[in-house]
Design goal:
The chain has helices spanning about 15-25, 85-100, 120-130, 145-155, 175, 195-205, 220-235, and strands spanning about 5, 35-40, 45-50, 60-65, 75-80, 100-105, 140, 145, 160-165, 170-175, 185-190, 210. A hairpin with a 6-residue loop joins strand 3 and strand 4 (about 60-65). The strands form two sheets. Strands 5, 6, 7, 8, 9, 10, 11 and 12 form an eight-stranded parallel sheet that branches. Strands 1-2-3-4 form a four-stranded mixed sheet. By secondary structure, it is α/β, with parallel strands linked by helices. The longest helix has 19 residues, at about 220-235. The chain starts with a strand and ends with a helix. Helices cover about 35% and strands about 25% of the residues. Helix 2 (about 85-100) runs parallel beside helix 3 (about 120-130) and helix 2 (about 85-100) runs parallel beside helix 7.
């Protein structure tokens, strides 16, 4: 099944230009054909093509279904972007495929990258959402200072975790700390890891110090492993 994405489909039944081109020029859909369209807010619609235009395809919604999130709880992964942006783009693609609700790029003391192109990351997330047959678009934040984000979520009802490599500050394995079904927020540091002060500040704000195992992982690998661990624990215990 091929999904098209039109966030305003219910109020403006027109496919965006990129989806219109794929629909009409590549797939050669014609007037009267039925296509699947998602709005990124959990709805999948069957739509009939009314005007097959490669830049602005007009459709008519003939059926709408609410698609439940295929995992329990809200998963937020907050990670300091790597120096090479393609590794973050790969990470976002895989996180969306596995299942994530929010992705937060963090600005930390040891950050190699100080800015990120949110629009580019969102396009990758949209593509991964469509390809993996999901109907909900994860929230993609702007680059956020670590202190700002920690303050924001410290009073939330989510289970908070901070992953790091510094063995002098005790940690426990994430898989043993998780409570199945709960909302979770996981902090992943930059290539130089969080500073000791950042770790202490996070712990003081309610974050549980955790490890992802005995092997040293790249930033993007650690973030993906953390997200997958949440899914596996939920699948085994719920």
């Amino acid at each position: 099944m091929i999904q098209f994405y039109a966030p305003d489909i219910l109020t403006n039944p027109v496919l965006p230009e990129s989806d219109s081109q794929h629909c009409i020029r590549v797939l050669r859909k014609q007037v009267g054909d039925i296509i699947e369209v998602i709005d990124g807010r959990g709805h999948r619609m069957q739509c009939r093509i009314v005007d097959a235009h490669s830049k602005r395809t007009l459709v008519e919604v003939v059926d709408s279904r609410e698609i439940e999130q295929p995992w329990v709880g809200e998963i937020t992964i907050a990670v300091a972007p790597t120096k090479h942006l393609d590794r973050m783009e790969w990470l976002v693609e895989k996180l969306v495929e596995i299942g994530v609700n929010r992705f937060v790029p963090l600005l930390c003391a040891h950050s190699e990258r100080k800015e990120i192109k949110r629009e580019r990351i969102e396009k990758i997330a949209i593509s991964a959402m469509k390809q993996s047959l999901k109907a909900t678009m994860p929230r993609i934040d702007e680059m956020t200072p670590l202190k700002t984000f920690v303050k924001e979520v410290s009073s939330s009802q989510s289970d908070l975790y901070v992953a790091y490599c510094d063995s002098e500050i005790p940690r426990r394995l994430l898989a043993k700390e998780l409570r199945a079904g709960n909302d979770v927020v996981i902090l992943i540091g930059p290539e130089g890891d969080f500073s000791p002060q950042e770790i202490r500040d996070a712990i003081a704000s309610g974050f549980k110090p955790i490890s992802l195992g005995d092997c040293r992982l790249r930033t993007e690998t650690a973030a993906l492993a953390a997200c997958q661990t949440v899914h596996v624990v939920n699948q085994l215990l719920l």
